[in-house]
Write a structure and sequence with these properties.
The structure holds 4 protein chains of 4 kinds.
Chain A: H1 11-32, H2 43-51, H3 53-86, H4 102-112, H5 123-142, H6 158-179, H7 183-214, H8 219-224, H9 231-234, H10 236-253, H11 278-303, H12 314-333, H13 341-368
Helix pairs in contact in A: 3-4, 3-11, 4-11, 5-6, 5-11, 6-7, 7-10, 7-13, 10-11, 10-13, 11-12
Chain C: H1 4-26, H2 30-50, H3 54-78, H4 94-114, H5 127-139, H6 143-164, H7 184-187
Helix pairs in contact in C: 1-2, 2-3
Chain D: E1 13-17, E2 29-35, E3 38-45, H1 53-57, H2 66-70, H3 77-92, H4 98-126, H5 130-151, H6 173-196, H7 199-205, H8 213-218, H9 223-228, H10 235-238, H11 259-283, E4 302-310, E5 313-321, E6 327-333, H12 335-341, H13 343-346, H14 352-362, H15 366-370
Antiparallel strand pairs in D: 1-2, 2-3, 4-5, 5-6
The chains are: A mainly alpha, B alpha/beta, C mainly alpha, D alpha+beta.
Chain lengths: ~375, ~160, ~200, ~375
């Protein structure tokens, strides 16, 4: 029984950080080498799909959902590892190298678990709710340009479309909260929707600022018009506060600490998904992480120039920026306590909404002059 | 003989069955009837000011129930121990929960375990609300010396009293 | 534009809208009725999309399917007995309601059928141009109605605040304490406070 | 023009928080009436952990009852041991050797550190800051290692006995403890900064769950709860036992009476405990650690009570003897019992989220409430 050192930055941890940095560098190097790969070999397949738009769209959707599911597994592992590192513990260690496969094991467990529906639940709504959350989460990803030619649906109203679809996700949460017929769930569902609708307003206003600056609502165009300078560099006075407001709203939209009131586990047990188990619970989880990816990616597109960046291929830059923003969300989550519902609401209505309104006016003025 | 005991004896000389005063602690035994007026004075007299209820419990001697109160004065840090004997067949005493709200639960506990009734307690009407540690529908008062538990088959409903 | 996919899209969206609208009326639980509004609104949004009115499509989703539906559901959840399914479906006014709506429906379809629809071959403006045109119309030609409508909404907003802001009864006070506490200095005889 | 409004009332909701709820810290049930998220009334229901310990103690000889007390306040069982040990010593007129008294103070203060660390962690977790929980449990783990080296157990120590402490310190204990304390003071400052300076944490704690001086006295609050309400009432000072009268330490008092004040009292108390521990290690004389008690221990008829300051407040044990081998009545004054009694008066008007903060700041242990 030896006395452990008190502080976490011990030699072994330093080594682990070093290994992480080396691995990250290797992955980046591999990614930057991707343009050299023989992509042209895939051209016949591409052409086949390109000639059949319906099949093409279907394939895109399937790819997107499976990509999201896998990314979700990876993100959960990353979050657990990161939380472990922050909290001076190891995180998952047993399944696979450093626990990489832990989430896969968990997913299999969730798939095999009994799907419990409470006896007094509103059954149709209880069953439907996870999909009402899942589908909008996936649809929002459709319009996100991952790279100049990797975008599910290059919609010219992309920014507005993404926002409007993400709002409908609230309905699923409301259905989950109501359908479970559990008082904690109802409170959680109500909180979720009140929070979502309130934070939607400053978020839309900030998106409108960017739209006004770039004079387009297409996400692809927004990125393309940041070719020289990222928005946050090009208009620092407008976009730095804008990015901060957007980030706060994004945290609230994806129910992350300090705004994780709908699922505040110390008050509402687990909020709207208290009664869910098995695959339905997993679907909520995947949707939550898909929302994370979406908001982080959205922020990257709006403020940090999307896929633009030197050396690396566009997809690498976009992924890197998104991951960094998700990492930032995790950092905030594992550090800060939770706000109370009224404090959170007044933060939105008394600070964010006026600030974003002023910002919008300033943006409009700056565009006119 | 401390000043505190002197002051109490001036007012309640004849009601005190037994009195013993030390430097930091005074022990009094009173009859159940004198309890309420004595306590009102203990609480409100600025020279006494026993505003803090430190503890209260009961015990069963076999012949009677002894209620035991421990009060502390926050100004002099003096402790006052108050003992009241109650008849075993009809244990009832006046509730002091309005003087010291902290006594509310302690009296409920004494009812729960010993079956001592507190007249004027906010929950006295309903035995189920008076119960605090035991289940609401428990039968009998287990801390009485003659309590003999008989397992009724359902652990939640509690054993039946034999006598 | 009258191609087969568009036809299929139109009819299926129309069916979605109408069937879910029927369910809104028929659902036993009013919460279910509220949720049936979702496919109804989505169907309407889809109809806008088939007309290539992109901005209206997105706005319909954002405002109706997103915001207004949630508000409706909130209101429904706050009504009493929202969870009970014992609300009778039959009402003695049902026959009259059926007759009136049937009459209205028949006369409306008659009017619509007799209308001579002018067919245009002009395509809608380019997507980017649409939103621009709408914006210009709203602050140009229709500025007055637009402002009046926003004034109406503002007054509704203020009215809602007035209605909702009922003075709450103060929280129940803790029980009164007959107390003779000594002054703080006396209690702090020996102990030393840090602050 | 007069505007008449009719209030749209919706029926209130009765919410059972607990007995299975992540934040009731054990099996406590709070029946709260809600209006939206605002609490109208609250009725705590306790007794889910009632084991009849006091009744069981009546059927056993005095000294056999010490292990039961481990199960009272299981986060600070040495302090509970001390309460009954002192009561037995008073009723049987036993004097504890000086080294035994020092060891008791030392052990109790180490245990107080462990208990307050649990408070720090769980309170932060209740407010959503999960990271502090793991930090403080890491420190507590080292305290448990130390106590394990001393007593052989990590939770239920049963090491303060009637008459003293059965063994002396193990080899190298003092050095290990000092080394721990040296690091601990920095760690504590770090955690304190992490929380106290946090605006969200302050918003959740300041002005929440205010207990006025009057209320605290009338409801019998003690320990950090009373001291957070401006009452400098610490048994270690007002009725010193063992060697506390020789120790130099301050009693932190905050007058706000809110959750923040109670939190700060406890953090400051940890610093003071560390001071006491260092003094104990420095000044402890050599000698016996335990007084010899007769094999058959029959105290004279009468009653006795002890007063000790446990991490939660005034923990005292009442014993009555009829001259036989077993006590006729054992009663524990559990500080948490009184603090839970405050809830019906404190909760009306606050929000659901505040219930968790208030409950966490009271730092109750249901083991001693239910007994």
């Amino acid at each position: 029984m030896s006395m452990q050192r008190l502080h976490p930055r011990s030699a072994s941890q330093a080594r682990e950080i070093l290994i992480g940095v080396v691995i990250a560098a290797l992955i980046l190097a591999a990614l930057s080498a991707t343009p050299l790969l023989p992509w042209h070999l895939l051209d016949p397949i591409r052409a086949y799909f390109y000639e059949r738009p319906l099949l093409n769209n279907l394939a895109k959707a399937v790819l997107l959902v499976s990509f999201m599911a896998v990314q979700c597994l990876f993100l959960i592992w990353m979050e657990r590892k990161f939380a472990g590192w922050l909290q001076a513990r190891l995180g998952p260690m047993h399944v696979g190298w450093k626990g990489v496969l832990q989430t896969f094991a968990d997913a299999i467990k969730l798939l095999l678990k009994e799907d419990i529906i409470p006896a007094l639940a509103d059954k149709p709504m209880f069953r439907l709710a996870p999909y009402l959350v899942f589908v909008p989460a996936m649809l929002t990803l459709m319009v996100l340009p991952f790279s100049p030619n990797l975008v599910g649906f290059d919609y010219h109203l992309g920014a507005l479309f993404a926002l409007s679809i993400s709002t409908t996700g609230a309905l699923g949460i409301l259905a989950a909260g109501w359908g479970a017929n559990n008082k904690y769930s109802v409170l959680g569902g109500m909180r979720a929707v009140a929070q979502l609708l309130s934070y939607e307003i400053p978020m839309i206003l900030i998106v409108l600022c960017v739209v006004t600056l770039k004079n387009t609502m297409s996400l692809t165009q927004i990125v393309e018009r940041q070719a020289g300078l990222w928005n946050i560099v090009a208009h620092p006075l407008l976009m730095i506060p804008g990015a901060l407001i957007f980030f706060s709203c994004a945290l609230a939209e994806v129910y992350r600490a300090p705004f994780d009131l709908p699922e505040a586990e110390s008050e509402l047990v687990s909020g709207f998904h208290t009664e869910y188990s098995g695959m339905r619970f997993a679907i909520f989880y995947i949707a939550e992480f898909a929302n994370n990816v979406f908001t982080a990616g959205f922020a990257a597109i709006l403020f940090f120039g999307g896929w633009h960046g030197p050396v690396l291929p566009p997809i690498a830059w976009f992924t890197l920026k998104t991951l960094l923003l998700i990492f930032l969300m995790m950092w905030v989550r594992w550090t800060l306590p939770r706000l109370r519902i009224d404090q959170m609401m007044s933060f939105c209505w008394k600070l964010l909404v006026p600030a974003s309104l002023i910002l919008f006016c300033l943006t409009a003025l700056s565009v006119v002059w | 003989m401390s000043a505190i005991l002197t002051r109490i004896q001036q007012q309640f000389g004849e009601a005190l069955l037994q009195a013993q005063g030390g430097e930091n602690e005074t022990r009094l035994t009173v009859s159940p009837d004198a309890l309420r007026p004595l306590c009102e004075t203990l609480r409100s007299d600025p020279a006494l000011a026993f505003g803090y209820i430190a503890d209260m419990t009961a015990r069963d001697t076999g012949e009677q129930f002894i209620l035991w109160y421990r009060l502390v004065s926050m100004s002099s840090l003096h402790t006052l121990i108050l003992t009241v004997a109650l008849p075993r067949d009809h244990p009832q005493v006046v509730s002091l929960a309005d003087l010291w709200p902290g006594l509310n639960w302690l009296e409920r506990e004494c009812f729960d375990l010993f079956g001592i009734r507190f007249a004027g307690h906010p929950d006295q009407e309903d035995p189920a609300r008076m119960r605090i540690l035991l289940p609401e529908d428990w039968e009998g008062f287990p801390f009485r010396k003659d309590y003999a538990p008989v397992f009724s088959g359902n652990p939640l409903h509690g054993p039946q009293e034999t006598n | 534009m009258n191609t087969l996919p568009v036809q299929i899209a139109f009819y299926s969206l129309a069916a979605l809208t109408l069937i879910s609208a029927a369910y809104v009326v028929r659902a036993r639980s009013i919460i279910h009725a509220g949720f049936w509004l979702l496919p109804c609104f989505v169907g309407v949004a889809g109809l806008f999309a088939t007309l290539q009115a992109h901005f209206f499509f997105v706005a319909q989703l954002l405002i109706y399917a997103g915001a207004i539906l949630v508000l409706i559901l909130f209101a429904l959840m706050l009504t009493r007995d929202a969870m009970s399914l014992h609300v009778p479906l039959k009402s003695h006014l049902g026959i009259w309601a059926g007759l009136i709506s049937a009459g209205l429906g028949i006369s409306a379809s008659l009017v619509l059928a007799r209308q001579s629809w002018s067919v245009t071959t002009a395509h809608p403006a380019g997507p980017a141009r649409q939103a621009e045109a709408l914006g210009e119309a709203l602050i140009g030609l229709y500025a007055v109605p637009f402002e009046v409508a926003s004034l109406l909404l503002l007054s509704a907003l203020i009215g809602a605040v007035v209605l909702a802001k009922v003075e709450r009864a103060p929280a129940p006070e803790p029980p009164p304490l007959a107390d003779t506490l000594p002054e703080p200095e006396e209690t702090r005889k020996e102990p030393v406070g840090v602050e | 023009m007069t505007l008449t409004t009719t209030e749209i009332t919706s029926p209130g909701m009765t919410l059972n928080m607990g007995p299975q709820h992540p934040s009731t810290h054990g099996v406590l049930r709070l029946v709260v009436e809600l209006d939206g998220e605002i609490i109208q009334s609250c009725r705590p229901v306790i007794g889910y952990l009632h084991r009849g310990l006091e009744k069981m103690m009546e059927a056993r000889p005095y000294r056999h009852n010490v292990p039961f007390t481990d199960r009272l306040d299981y986060l600070a069982s040495l302090n509970s041991n001390l309460a009954i040990a002192q009561a037995i010593e008073r009723i049987g007129n036993v004097t504890v050797p000086e080294r035994g008294q020092y060891l008791r103070v030392l052990l109790c203060e180490i245990n107080r550190l462990a208990s307050h660390l649990v408070f720090l962690g769980t309170f932060a977790t209740d407010l959503g800051a999960t990271t502090v929980f793991l930090y403080s449990f890491r420190e507590r783990e080292r305290i448990l290692d130390l106590l394990e080296a001393m007593t052989g157990a990590r939770l239920t120590y049963n090491w303060i006995r009637a008459g003293g402490v059965p063994t002396d310190l193990p080899e190298g204990f003092g050095e290990r403890l000092t080394a721990f304390l040296d690091e601990f003071q920095f760690a504590l400052d770090e955690y304190d900064r992490l929380l106290t300076g946090n605006r969200i944490f302050r918003a959740r704690c300041e002005g929440i769950g205010v207990i006025s001086r009057e209320m605290a006295v009338a409801y019998g609050a003690s320990g950090p709860v009373a001291r957070g309400s401006g009452i400098a009432y610490d048994i270690r000072k007002v009725a010193p036992y063992d060697v506390y009268d020789r120790m130099e330490f301050d009693v932190p008092v905050y007058t706000e009476g809110d959750c923040m004040a109670r939190y700060r009292v406890r953090v400051e108390e940890m610093r003071q405990s560390a001071r006491i521990i260092r003094q104990c290690l420095r000044e402890m004389p050599e000698g016996e650690t335990m007084a010899k008690l007769p094999k058959i221990f029959k105290p004279p008829p009468g009653e006795a009570y002890s007063r000790t300051e446990s991490p939660r407040g005034e923990l005292s044990c009442y014993l009555s003897s009829d001259g036989s081998m077993n006590p006729t009545r054992v009663h524990f004054r559990a500080p948490s019992f009184f603090h839970l009694g405050l809830l019906p008066a404190m909760l009306p008007g606050v929000k659901v989220a505040d219930v968790i903060a208030i409950l966490g700041s009271l730092d109750t242990v249901l083991g001693e409430v239910d007994r």
